[in-house]
Amino acid sequence: MEGPFGWGRQEEVDGWRKGPWTSQEDKLLVDHVTQHGEGRWNSVSKLAGLKRSGKSCRLRWVNYLRPDLKRGKITPQEESIIVQLHALWGNSRWSTIAHSLPGRTDNEIKNYWRTHFKKGKPSKSIERARARFLKQRQEMMQQQQQQSLIGQLEEDGDQRRGTCCTGATADDDDRGSATAGDACAAPTTAVATDAAGDLIMHVDAMDCFIMCPMSCDDLLLLHGAGGGQGGGTAGSCCGSTASDEYGSSEEDGATWGSLWNLDGAGEVCTLW
DNA sequence: AATGTAGTCAACCGCAGGCAT
DNA sequence: CATGCCTGCGGTTGACTACAT
Predict the structure, then answer these.
(1) Strand (E) positions, chain A?
(2) Residue A101 pLDDT > 80, yes or no?
(3) Does the pTM exceed 0.70?
(4) A48, A134, A158, A259: which has the highest count of C-beta atoms within 10 A?
(5) What kind of architecture, by CATH, is found in domain A11-65?
């Protein structure tokens, strides 16, 4: 066996090696990416002398070899962020969630979520955190609606949008590079965790989130830089009512996974 | 000590979107 | 405009490890 985990043997299909990577292969890939940079994965195999598909090379690099990866356990702060963002995005945006957790991969977060929350009940602290998050989100949305009405009555409500964001556009390919960080004057912290791991949310930040005419991805980028230190991100840019679903039936482990899946939120977001 | 079960992690697969031709 | 390729993503699988019985 070559590696410490699974795929006890290496097979070769259509000339491509599969299964666990050897240290030699790792070195070849690292050397190649160091010299030529990421991308063009299909040519990596040829140029680096690897009998691996482009997909496999990319996956190995992204999930294991990248130098900026943070190894080790998910911290409580990171867990809180994952919980918040999963409440917002559901199961279909692991990469988006991962962008808010520097050094963590979507695969890692996905695995973590599945093992910790998919099957059994989450811990009390997580339950509490999520409940509070959703409650505050709902309150802020109500508050936002009120303010919007007031704003419209006073001056058509356009000034807020103008002062919040000024043309922030983050290219999809540039996710994670904090592209839009300088384009928005929004507060830098939308959600943070206190020492006990409970969520603290700043209404002004969420207020901006709601008003910004940006994609949800951009919103995450704006605030994602401090994720590791508990300055995580969460935005109420979408109009879904997560709290409606929460608390319906928690005793069933299988139900829990879907309980948090606010796919509707994602659909709303993509319309932006 | 042996066996069973759950947890963890790396890797693969299929699909979808973007881009070049 | 249509087609094909490349890249990235989410879902799933499979093997090892740790813990419980």
Answers:
(1) 11-13, 16-18, 191-193, 199-201
(2) yes
(3) no
(4) A134
(5) Orthogonal Bundle (1.10)
